[in-house]
Amino acid sequence: MKRGVFFLSVLLGFLNRAGTTLSLEDIGILVRDLPRHNSFQYLTRFSLPAEYFEAAYGALEDPHIYIILSDTGSPAGKVIGFFTASPYNHLSLSFDPALKTLVSYNGGNGISSPGLNRERPEHLNLKPGASLAVYRLKTREGKKRAVIDRLAAINREGSSYNLLGLLTGKSILPNIMFCSQFVYTVLRDAGVVYFNKKGGILRPVDFVNLARGDGLEFTSKIDITPCTAGTIPEGKNFPITLDSRSITAYNLIQ
Questions:
Q1: Domain that residue 39 falls in
Q2: Domain count, the chain
Q3: Is the pLDDT of residue 252 over 60?
Q4: What does pTM read for this prediction?
């Protein structure tokens, strides 16, 4: 706990000196959440059930891995936003276009332990205007299988969310990561490398802005603000802006 309080005090001082402020509510959420985190040992094991892997391996016929940028409005996202200068501050993977296998490293939303956890689009709705930008990366079945195999290994070995890594970009143990570290690591280990990043903290937007060639394709922006009872609105156009590029696409879920 003392390490967490020290980390938060250093972080808040750094952000305030840089002119970035968090609301009292945001600070309260971060403080209350600190005891659940540990950047030095694994907290989460077997967070992904067998049915998750059945769905993931069942999607191997689809020749794509889906990369999802999120603008969720969480306090942690606001902290990450200082370093990224982008509203899209969370990164997830999915193996199917309907995002039924959405997964990432996160804080567990107060339910699960911080680390590797399954996600649902409607659970990322933490502010008015929350949205997801969905991309797909074409890959061979063998490499897609290797990514899922790597997830299964992390699920067995254990994981934790890399809170300290938000400042340092480093991990104490291999499976202690934050979201963009996680996505980059499992893709790299499976041989799915489509951009190079040298030095500094790996940002979620790097997965789009540093992409080379035609392998990465934008598919849609999903506005999840109107969601109720786990539904996503259909048949509506939404604009998306990343690095001054404005793109309009239809909702992925139709």
A1: 2-250
A2: 1
A3: no
A4: 0.77
